[in-house]
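Structure in, sequence out. Go:
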């Protein structure tokens, strides 16, 4: 048990990654908290893990996602301070889009700063961007009290069989079968923090009022030749504001107004707070909708991607974009913003700069769907597979740090 995997938000791409590492790496132990109440986890996970993680002299490497305030955990558990630490960033909370016109909750970004070593020139640039100033060993932002400072790709699509009970450190003898999640600090209530930051996340399979339908490709192909059926657009993203569903549906409704033929499948997880645009768009799109909602079965999800022609992203914040790469693997033609991480992954012909450009591309595809159905993707995707990345992860999680690995910038490239 030389590798300690810590995940404060055990769900979605967070779960996908640590499950894969647990399955593929020898001598791993995984400690995790349930994928709900994200703001509460970001504030208090370190105190929960302080109590959950058993003392073990065999730990050599600590791997955690940036939901955890790593600096706080090390302060609470000095025995973990000696380990080599790898911090995986699924997102950057300093620039994560806010949902409402309100002052950003600085605590989430501040946690990431505390957990992440930065060279002096990058630190100075960061201070300038986010509007903080340093006085000695303290940071101060206008209107906020001074706070003391304490002392880095892949579409990992391999299916994992690892299962972990919520709030449990797996692989440690003597632990109870379940470990209750402890909210140990009154710094913020879950309700208040969910309004100030990211929305509260819950397991969509447990929500009785949401539509989780089984996808049946026969409903698409019956009575229509493949080449003759309308263009099929898929949007396989979380139903949250940072994915900008408003822009996506605005473009589709423009196509609808022009009476252009198309079908749409809106996949991805929905959480406790669903943007109003989803119910409004479903009604307005009417018969153009082929599928609407979360697909619990991974096979059904990939089958749905295989039946689609075009996959679209309208995201405002993206470190990698697993869903887009998975859709390309399934044969979809990608259309992505010419921003964020996308230009690093997709060739220029798959990028658009404005919603108007996206509309024009889709308008042409609606008129000639055979264009995308005959198209062969021109980018390279093999490098994002687990087969290509396995060796890099093994080297990264080796007990001894190496300078060349520190320069690889894996934390930026690894998926979100």
């Amino acid at each position: 048990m030389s590798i300690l995997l810590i995940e404060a938000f055990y769900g979605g791409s967070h779960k996908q990654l640590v499950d894969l590492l647990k399955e593929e790496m020898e001598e791993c132990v995984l400690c995790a908290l349930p994928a709900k109440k994200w703001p509460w986890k970001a504030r208090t996970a370190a105190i929960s893990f302080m109590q959950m993680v058993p003392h073990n002299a065999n730990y050599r490497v600590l791997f955690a996602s940036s939901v955890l305030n790593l600096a706080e955990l090390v302060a609470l558990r000095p025995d973990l301070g000696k380990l080599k630490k790898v911090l995986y960033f699924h997102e950057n909370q300093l620039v994560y889009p806010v949902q409402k016109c309100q002052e950003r909750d600085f605590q989430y970004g501040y946690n990431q700063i505390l957990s992440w070593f930065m060279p002096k020139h990058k630190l100075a640039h960061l201070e300038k961007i986010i509007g903080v100033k340093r006085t000695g060993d303290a940071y101060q932002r206008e209107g906020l009290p001074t706070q003391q400072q304490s002392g880095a790709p892949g579409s990992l699509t391999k299916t994992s069989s690892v299962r972990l009970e919520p709030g449990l450190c797996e692989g440690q003898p003597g632990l109870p079968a379940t470990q209750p999640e402890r909210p140990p600090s009154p710094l913020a209530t879950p309700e208040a923090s969910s309004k100030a930051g990211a929305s509260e996340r819950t397991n969509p399979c447990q929500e009785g009022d949401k539509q989780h339908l089984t996808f049946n490709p026969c409903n698409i192909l019956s009575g229509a030749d493949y080449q003759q059926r309308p263009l099929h657009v898929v949007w396989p993203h979380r139903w949250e504001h940072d994915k900008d569903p408003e822009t996506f549906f605005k473009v589709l409704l423009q196509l609808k107004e022009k009476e252009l033929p198309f079908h749409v499948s809106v996949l991805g997880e929905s959480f406790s707070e669903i943007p109003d645009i989803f119910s409004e768009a479903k009604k307005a799109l009417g018969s153009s909708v082929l599928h609407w909602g979360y697909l619990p079965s991974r096979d059904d999800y990939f089958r749905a991607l295989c039946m689609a022609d075009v996959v679209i992203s309208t995201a405002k914040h993206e470190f990698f974009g697993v869903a887009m790469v998975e859709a390309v693997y399934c044969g979809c033609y990608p259309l992505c913003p010419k921003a964020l991480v996308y230009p690093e992954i997709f060739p220029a012909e798959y990028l658009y700069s404005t919603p108007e450009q996206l509309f024009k591309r889709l308008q042409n595809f609606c008129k000639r769907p055979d264009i995308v159905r005959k198209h062969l993707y021109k980018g390279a995707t093999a490098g994002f597979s687990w087969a290509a990345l396995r060796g890099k992860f093994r080297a990264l999680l080796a007990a001894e740090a190496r300078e060349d690995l520190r320069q690889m910038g894996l934390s930026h490239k690894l998926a979100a």
